[in-house]
Amino acid sequence: MTDVIKSNGKREQFSEQKVKNSIENAVKDAGFSPQEKMNVIEHASQDAAQMAQGQDEIKTRQIRDTILNDLEQDDQQVANAWKQYERQHGINY
After folding, report:
1. What total number of domains does the chain contain?
2. Which of 3, 38, 87, 91 has its CA 20 to 30 A from that of 60?
3. What is the pairing mode between strands 11-13 and 3-5?
4. Is residue 93 part of a domain?
C-alpha cells in the first residue's frame, strides 16, 4: 500500500475514497451536486489512485497537483471551486 506524506510530515494510507470526498466537497461548495459532476470526480480520483499505485509513498502535493490538473482539463468551474475550497479552509501546499 502507498503511504501519503502530509504537509505536516504525518503519514497515512492512501485512500481513493478520501480523494473523492475532497473533490465532492469542492463540487458542493461550488453549488453543484456530486451527481452533476460524477464523471469529473471519478476521472480525477482514478488518476490520483493510478499515480499512487505501486509507490511506497507519495506527497499530498503530488496528489493535489494531479487532481487539479485533471479538473482544469475536465471542468474549469470545479477546478476553481477546488482552489476556492483550499483558500477557505487554509490549505496551503
Report:
1. 1
2. 38
3. antiparallel
4. no
